[in-house]
Amino acid sequence: MNYLTEPTKDLRRKSLHEELTQTLRDLIIHGTLPPGVKIPEKDLCDAYSVSRTPLREALKVLASEGLVVLEPNRGARVSQITQEDLDEVFPVMGALEALAGELACRNITDQEIAEIQALHQQMLGHYRDLDLDSYFTANQKIHEALLAAARNQTLTTHYRSLSARVQRARYVANMTPARWAQAVDEHEEIIKHLLARNGERLAATLRRHLENKLKTVSHHLGRKADFRPAG
């Protein structure tokens, strides 16, 4: 074995696989591939100049995240968004976000707080511009930064295994002006408690933030839902 070239090949293959997985994940989260649609494998292979092998590897990852359903001898479909799924996922995410907030307040650096504040200002700018897509992007970066500041790899792994399902539900729901304003107010609270390094209050705000998000998505699906945080 040539030890100088073989690992490079593996790394390139891994990079392609990860990049393709994220691309497909984004297509599903943003609704370009909507719930219930059959995954057009040939079209995707042609569009991204890849073979079926890395595509199917990516679909297996997305199936493990609950975004795709693999159908034997029939290919794959984007999973449906159901109330039952939301009632399972959102309370768990609420608990994980709360824990991330508590740990972040213990471990975060001043530099990290400054970076989150800068992201928050960007998010507010997108809110004023009514740029929902850019708002969501900055919003997600804030939550990811809090997660990183928690310094807990086990928490990160579980969070990311569910995060895409929450993001997709958020994108499909109609964001009313009232809910958007409420979400911004909640993020103002998040920054306030983070600056004070008050883990208990930050955790409570993050739970409530997910609770209100669930209510918005549930209303979009046709009914209101009770939010029962895990733990």
From TrEMBL:
<dbReference type="Pfam" id="PF00392">
    <property type="entry name" value="GntR"/>
</dbReference>
<dbReference type="Pfam" id="PF07729">
    <property type="entry name" value="FCD"/>
</dbReference>
<protein>
    <submittedName>
        <fullName>GntR family transcriptional regulator</fullName>
    </submittedName>
</protein>
<dbReference type="InterPro" id="IPR036388">
    <property type="entry name" value="WH-like_DNA-bd_sf"/>
</dbReference>
<dbReference type="InterPro" id="IPR008920">
    <property type="entry name" value="TF_FadR/GntR_C"/>
</dbReference>
<keyword id="KW-0238">DNA-binding</keyword>
<dbReference type="InterPro" id="IPR011711">
    <property type="entry name" value="GntR_C"/>
</dbReference>
<feature type="domain" description="HTH gntR-type">
    <location>
        <begin position="14"/>
        <end position="81"/>
    </location>
</feature>
<dbReference type="InterPro" id="IPR000524">
    <property type="entry name" value="Tscrpt_reg_HTH_GntR"/>
</dbReference>
<keyword id="KW-0805">Transcription regulation</keyword>
<keyword id="KW-0804">Transcription</keyword>
<dbReference type="InterPro" id="IPR036390">
    <property type="entry name" value="WH_DNA-bd_sf"/>
</dbReference>
